[in-house]
Specification:
By secondary structure, this protein is of the alpha+beta class. It has a three-stranded antiparallel sheet, with no helix packed on it. Strands 4-5-6 form a three-stranded antiparallel sheet, with helices on one face. Strands 1-7 form a two-stranded antiparallel sheet. Helix 4 packs antiparallel against helix 7. The protein is elongated. The two termini are 74 Å apart.
Length: 452
């Protein structure tokens, strides 16, 4: 099944494009494998991680979604808690159910009221601002049919705004209109009270409210809002708010809506699935860095062995075959466990084994050595392969001397590399040393305060 999925992905243009981006790195990390094998291995390694992760995310999402369930009825006796004086007005999300009809409402429950300081600003400026905005979406005060904008504060102003509504109850505190009972246009007056401490400035507004037809459902919710407003007003100094349990002879039940965490889990899962390929590609880059370091460390030893074998009389191909065969024999002696083989893997000798097989299959030595230098991709190895190719082309008798010079140069480079690694190690040790210094300071300060 997994094999079929991998093949299906590789047949798509996107699958081939994704795998091709990493082929150059994978061909150097997994020596001797074909491009098709590397593509398949790349997709399989991703599926091994992504599929279980996707299953876990879906299971967690389903569990949270099912576990959250519907809204839970927790309001006993339809009571809502108020905050203490000086607290903030909080918004409670409620699900109101009446005879099978449900409605989601946002109810603002203010804190218990006591005396509060009010801000002062220029009354003329406040009057001008209210005159321009109190009508809301209504075009004129002579034809008011939409909710008013009864703001309780002015922008960039220290004034506090209170509204004294008409005695007929046609205008509600939130600016909504209760005009279902009127049959003809009705003139009303509301007053805005701008206050600062003990001073007040009254601004009367005359308007004409037009009648409006409402359905039975709209009338019910309007009466419910009125009942809630009365409950909030009568319990303004109490700790709890008693919500109406019956409106227009209909029983009302209240539920608190619970915010589900399933959406956040789905978002986190998608984000994790999106980041996982980037993390795995970063891991390939780290392996490439380790490969380069290993090749740099193994180069002097390889040159030394090659000089010894050539100096003992072996031809270039014989020395090459001897070194590659010795590596294969060592790998076989260490066991067939994949983890053991991977731990003892030497990229240099893996590349030499590939070159040996190419020569055994009929490729000329010159071409095989050139491909070896290109595959490794490091300057020192390309120089080494060029020496071998030059000797095969011109039959130079100075090969041994040139190789000895290269061996001397490689050991000098190895010393420089060791010094560089030592400097990097000392830099990494600075952070733990700083932590130890902070711990010592903390112990000294603690002992000093204890002795005071």
């Amino acid at each position: 099944m997994r094999q079929r999925i991998v093949e299906a992905i590789l047949k798509t243009k996107v699958g081939r494009m994704i795998a091709d981006r990493q082929l150059d790195s994978l061909s150097r990390l997994y020596v001797g494998k074909s491009r098709q094998e590397l593509r398949q291995q790349y997709i399989e390694s991703r599926l091994k991680v992504m599929v279980p992760l996707l299953v876990v995310v879906l299971l967690v999402y389903a569990g949270v979604y099912i576990g959250s369930g519907p809204a839970t009825q927790i309001l006993q006796d339809a009571l809502l808690q108020r905050e203490d004086p000086g607290g903030n007005t909080r918004t409670v999300a409620l699900q109101v159910e009446v005879e099978g009809i449900e409605k989601q409402v946002q109810l603002k429950v203010s804190a218990r009221e006591l005396n509060r300081e009010q801000l002062e600003a220029e009354f003329v400026k406040g009057e001008k601002y209210l005159s321009e905005h109190y009508l809301g979406k209504n075009r004129s005060a002579e034809q008011v049919s939409k909710p008013l904008c009864l703001m309780t504060e002015l922008p960039n102003s220290p004034l506090a705004v209170e509204w004294r509504l008409d005695g007929q109850g046609l205008v509600q505190e939130d600016g909504s209109l209760q005009c279902s009972d009127i049959e003809e246009p009705t003139s009303v007056e509301i007053t805005a009270c701008l206050s600062y401490q003990e001073e007040e400035y009254l601004i009367p507004f005359q308007m004409t409210i037009l009648p409006q037809n409402r359905s039975n459902e709209e009338l019910f919710w309007l009466h419910w809002n009125e009942a809630v407003d009365r409950a909030l007003e009568t319990t303004s100094t109490e700790q709890t708010v008693k919500l109406p349990e019956t409106v227009d002879g209909k029983a009302v039940q209240y539920y608190t809506t619970q915010e589900s965490q399933a959406g956040w889990i789905a978002f986190a899962g998608i984000l994790l699935l999106g980041l996982m390929p980037l993390v795995m590609n970063q891991r390939i880059k780290q392996q490439m860095v380790l490969r380069e370091k290993q090749l740099q460390r193994d180069y002097p030893d390889m040159i030394e062995q090659f000089v010894l074998l050539v100096g003992a009389g072996l031809p270039i191909k014989g020395a090459w075959t001897r070194m590659a065969g010795r590596y294969l024999q060592t790998q076989e002696n260490k066991g067939a466990d994949k983890k053991t083989i991977a731990a003892n893997k030497k990229y240099l000798y893996e590349e030499m084994c590939v070159t040996m097989r190419e020569m055994e299959s009929g490729m000329c030595e010159q071409k095989a050595y050139e491909l070896f230098g290109k595959r490794v991709g490091m300057l020192c190895y390309m120089k080494f392969s060029s020496l071998l190719v030059q000797n095969l082309k011109k039959g130079s008798e100075d090969l041994l001397r040139l190789l000895e010079q290269e061996a001397t140069e490689s050991f000098r480079m190895r010393k420089e590399y060791a010094m560089k690694c030592g400097e990097e190690a000392s830099t990494r040790l600075l952070f733990p040393m700083m932590l130890m210094l902070l711990v010592v300071f903390a112990i000294i300060l603690y002992a000093a305060f204890q002795s005071m």
